[in-house]
Amino acid sequence: MQYKSQAVAKPYFIAAIALFVGQILFGLIMGLQYIIGDFLFPLIPFNVARMVHTNLLIVWLLFGFMGAAYYLIPEESERELHSPKLAMLMFWVFLVAGALTVVGYLAVPYASLAKITGNDLLETMGREFLEQPLPTKVGIVIVALVFLFNISMTVLRGRKTSISLVMLAGLWGLALFFLFSFINPSNLVKDKFYWWWVVHLWVEGVWELILGAMLAFVLIKVTGVDREVIEKWLYSIIAMSLITGIIGTGHHYFWIGAPAYWQWWGSVFSALEPIPFFMMTVFAFNMVNRRRRDHPNRAAVLWALGTGVMAFLGAGVWGFLHTLSPVNYYTHGTQITAAHGHMAFYGAYAMVVMTMISYTMPLMRGRQANSNKSQVVEMWSFWLMTVSMVFITLFLTAAGVLQVWLQRIATTPLSFMETQDQIAIFYWLRLASGVVFMIGLGLYIFSFFVSGNKDDKVAEA
Amino acid sequence: MSSSFTKSTARNIFYGGSVFFFLLFLGLTFDTMNTLPKRDNSANLTESAIRGKKIWETRNCIGCHTLLGEGAYFAPELGNVYKRRGPDFIRAWMAAQPTGAPGRRQMPQFNLNEKEMNDLVEFLKYSSEINTNNWPPNIEG
Prior knowledge:
The structure holds 2 protein chains of 2 kinds.
Chain A: H1 9-33, H2 46-77, H3 84-107, H4 110-116, H5 134-156, H6 162-178, H7 188-223, H8 227-248, H9 262-271, H10 274-289, H11 298-321, H12 325-331, H13 335-364, H14 372-409, H15 416-422, H16 424-447
Chain B: H1 7-35, H2 47-58, E1 66-67, E2 70-71, H3 81-85, H4 87-96, H5 114-128
Antiparallel strand pairs in B: 1-2
């Protein structure tokens, strides 16, 4: 760690991991509710558990992105962060706002929460992933603006590298497109159309810039490959991300009332969306193969390679699987979508945050890398989480294929609930994989507390 | 990558490509907004249906159900429920929740009054008449 203020990243990463645990816990609750329908009813109905599950995911990834920016931007800019105090203040604001929102979801019926928090003033609630009450949404905007001010000032007054500019562009884009969460036309088609400007243009647009910048930063550090080479890759990857991803939004416009020509635009461009993810895999492996040094933090290298592979599989391959409109006609709104969502979010975004944490956390704790023993535990957690996520995806895919067949293709189609009963076995298997994932996550947290033998301590930073 | 393909080439493709395709996206959006009135059933978007949409949102229906295929996959598609079940069934169903059947998925009781119930049904009727390019493939959703 070269600059003292980079240390503000630490609480951000700790909060991210804590919320990650909460996310998985609620995931397990839902996994069980899929099979034992009345589990925890009416205490935690499914819709509440899902809201907590998905919102915690978003919030912990945002914590991860912000922590990553606070670490990466000063180092790239070669100066201290503009205001570490402001960064710490926003940390607490965001954490308290996030916690209050989750408490609100769990403690109060959603309709009452909407009433209390002023949804009548501006109706933004009750749309998937954007369920947050108005004060929370406003809070997110404020935190984002203060955060962007802080890192933008740092970049402006320091060295401007391609990595920091791409990171900055991604984060500004994130804040900008979030503003569409305040737009909720009563016309359902328009509502859905602009809802995707937040959701799609985040995860298949500007978030890929953030992902690319974080990955490039870690790869420069752990491989020692020339910056020019890495930044050329970065620009090539994100160019393909936006060239394919912006019009690729059209793959969400097939069946929501938008004109039929979106089936062409959406199918063609989103079919190309795997390209940037494939490039990311090639990029990660290429850089590691051409490394000029063997970094002692082998766990971080593993996470970086894993991100490339899993992002390509989850976002690229599983996305392509159901993105062509003739296929999507049958798979839209089934467990196929759930399968894709799980592996894509884990492989692209959860893993890149863990890559960053893995690389920076030892440095912030005063060593170049963790002890061998600690790294072995961390690598076990990598494999447990990653392999179990592969299985979650495979079981959900199997459930989805059967669901499509029984409910939409068979000569005598079954109803939704009859179909669900038929595919319950896959929900059991998914739940078992989820339990393994939780064990992997537990091991991941444990790895931070493994100090290892004194004699195998890796070189102090 | 070859040496003639430099970092600044890549950067220019990024900026140029992003701007070009974003403008194209805006153009398509503009055209979509102009075409929508023919497809989006907005002629039947009554005051009642608008109130119904708010009820749909403030009960977080999307947390279990899909609507035109978007939402959660825990409970049936409701974009075409008006056609599948009809208004009377929807009212009776909502009134009977939760079933309390052991081990079965449970839907909360939302205690809607008659007016709210009518608004919600009106919203589901409006939704079912949007031109979705013949999706879903059959009435089961």
